[in-house]
Amino acid sequence: MIRSVFAGVCRTPFVAASRATTYKAPALVHRFYSEQATPETESAQPASSANSAEAKQEAEAAPAISAQDVEKLKQTITEKDAKLKELKDAYLRSLADAENIRTRAKTEVDNTKTFAIQKFAKDLLDTVDILELAIKHVPQEHLADKVANKSLADLYEGVDMTKSNLLRTLERHGVESFDPMDQPYDPNTSHALYQAPIPGKTPGHVFAVEKRGYVLKGRVLRSAQVGVVLDTSDN
Predict the structure, then answer these.
(1) What are residue 72's phi and psi, to 5 degrees?
(2) Of residues 177 and 32, which shows the higher confidence score?
(3) What DSSP character marks residue 70?
(4) Helices (H), the chain
């Protein structure tokens, strides 16, 4: 009895001790950080070193540029600069020509609009001349007696009003008349039909106007037809 109790007492600590020795600590896990070299970086370093070595060898193997080659390059650059300057000048001239063409085209369009009625107005001048000629050849003494010559006076007045209205219409469209009477003869605006010595008149001046002149926007539409005083001092 005593042995069995003793044996049980002695066995209990041994079992606990044996159980205690069976506990195992957890295993430690190792991690690699950036400071530590990984297998990939260790394999990449030899490749980059090889590339640097190859580049160095190629640079050493490249032929050196001689002074003659430098001169050729300088000459080529000079020729290219001259060609570039020539092309730039041609471009600027082209721009100037294009601008001149646009200016001329605009001027022609403006002139076309301004002088569109030139032919029509010039044809109407013949009508004005006929009306003036009719008025000019009516004897003034017949007009003085409006009672005896009432029909003639009315006709004269009607023709004169027609001429005046026609001239006003032409003026509204830029057509104006001019009379160079007693003015120096200007071949740019007048056409001399004849010359005659006129006492008391200045030689080279207009002493008679057969037909008045007309201008359209400053341009001579029809020259005046005049008679000019002849200079007789040389005779």
Answers:
(1) -65, -40
(2) 177
(3) H
(4) 2-21, 39-61, 67-114, 118-136, 140-144, 150-172
Burial class (CB in 10 A: 0-12, 13-18, 19+), 221: buried
- The whole-model pTM stands at 0.54
Q: Which of 41-55, 109-123, 128-142 has the lowest mean pLDDT?
A: 41-55
C-beta of residue 200 within 8 angstroms of C-beta of residue 211: no
Q: How far apart are CA 215 and CA 118, in angstroms?
A: 10
List Cβ neighbours of 95 (8 Å cut-off, separation of 6 or more): none
Question: What are residue 218's phi and psi, to 5 degrees?
Answer: 90, -10
Q: Which of the pair, 70 or 30, is modelled with greater confidence?
A: 70
Distance CA 136, CA 115 (A): 31
